[in-house]
Amino acid sequence: MKVFVADTDSLSISKLERSLSMSGFACEKAIISGKVPESLFHYLVNGFKGVVVLGAGLDDDLKESWIRQCRKSETVFPVLVVTQAKRRDSLMKFNEAGMTDFICLPLRPDELVTRISLLIRQVYPSDYAANVFRNGPFVFSRFPNKVLRDGKEIELTVKEFELACLLFRHIGQPLSRVTIEETIWFSSENELSRTIDTHVSRVRNKLDLKEEHGYRLQQVYGYGYQLVEV
């Protein structure tokens, strides 16, 4: 599931992208200084799946035009507009053009993540449901990345979350270092070996994967790691 972020400069985009990336969203971005390229519209209206975020720096007329163009798509995807609260007339125009939701400045990262998550649940309910799985006291979900144990959220980094999901989806099955490297880091370089060990240790500690709690995260000598239920 992608979040497409557009604004007039890289700094503004980074402010939007940072909190989304830290929550596990795959972000794409575009710096728009004038008219939106036709190639970009073509990309969005031909099978894009995710949420489009239009930054506050974009001209209101450009935003309205962009929203109308997005609504020509054969597939329905939500468009969220970042704007000033005082621009009520513009908000009415955006709404008439087909805006799905808006968020007002000053930007609050947690609110942005929550709004994006709600839009995905509303527009893509089957995709959201397909990315929720349970094992014992644990519940893993995406959009945003979240893991609960007995209903209490455990804070993980993006890589820690991906590693935990990989281990739990293959519980009882040994995973090689190469598999872990290529799946989580998209690489298979030797210098990643210590990084893997560090992340495994953090996942073990944060999720409290101990035998007395029903799990054992063990090293498979010369091969990799394995999570087992005991």
From TrEMBL:
InterPro entries: CheY-like_superfamily, OmpR/PhoB-type_DNA-bd, Sig_transdc_resp-reg_C-effctor, Sig_transdc_resp-reg_receiver, WalR-like, WH-like_DNA-bd_sf. Residues 130-229 form the OmpR/PhoB-type domain. Residues 2-120 form the Response regulatory domain. It comes from the Bacteria. CDD domains: trans_reg_C. Residues 130-229 bind DNA. Keywords: DNA-binding, Phosphoprotein, Transcription, Transcription regulation, Two-component regulatory system. It holds the Pfam family Trans_reg_C. PANTHER family: REGULATOR OF RPOS (PTHR48111), TWO-COMPONENT RESPONSE REGULATOR ORR33 (PTHR48111:SF1). This is Response regulator transcription factor. It comes from Oxalobacter aliiformigenes.
